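Good day; I would like, with your permission, to put a structural problem before you. What I wish to show you is a protein chain and, alongside it, a tokenised description of its three-dimensional fold. Please examine both parts with care and let me know of anything in them that strikes you as inconsistent. Thank you for your consideration; the sequence and its tokens are set out here:

***
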Amino acid sequence: MKELENDWMKKWELGKEKTLCPVDLNKYFEQKEIAGKSLATINIGSCDLPSGNILVRDPLVYLPNRNERPYFQKAPAGRYETEICVVKSDGEDCDRYAAVRLRFNDRRAVRFYEALIGNENLETLKEEGDYFGFNVDAGLGCICDEIIHRIYCDWDEQWRVDHPDDNPYDGYFAALFKENYHQHPMYQRADGDWLNWQVPGTEYHIPIFQSGFGDGTYPVYWGIDENGEICQLVIQFIDIELAYDNDEN
């Protein structure tokens, strides 16, 4: 197994440029408009990273799996604010969450490389913009530390034992999303589009949010500063220019 990991790391070092994001994701949080769409940035509260080993997953479908692995690179441990880039509604569609960002310091990212687990087949990346991403099947994503992931799995298993005829969204999370909407209605639909969830019995927070256009596969990137160090984590739900430029096409 160790030899396989070492072999994968060598391939990653050689093919790292294939995982480069073709979009400058800084613009999502620095510009007021892209491709004719007005943008806003909202802060939905803290994300706790006690270990710095991060998983980005669908919180209802994939996060409850104990076998899910974090990205092989890690962030500095700590508590960070969760920012969302919103494509503002123009009357034809609801507000859409284009990207979610954690900033680990004040340094600006100069490049964005895809966050990987360490078991991806790098040879499948053929064209600029190809990515592996994470799967969404319940219309939601979240950022979760490896330590909190284990606690979450314990909570999820116990909740299902206690509520055998229900599911965690309908029986638990739906009410919290609606309550959050009433407290913070800006850039949310009536059923709620984000939640800064404090894991019961802990001081840890997991930010949960709607996933752009819904179910699909979405890339996650490490922002790298001019010194070659990780300074951000960014989930890209919508390639704004690709999605909205030349709408008729």
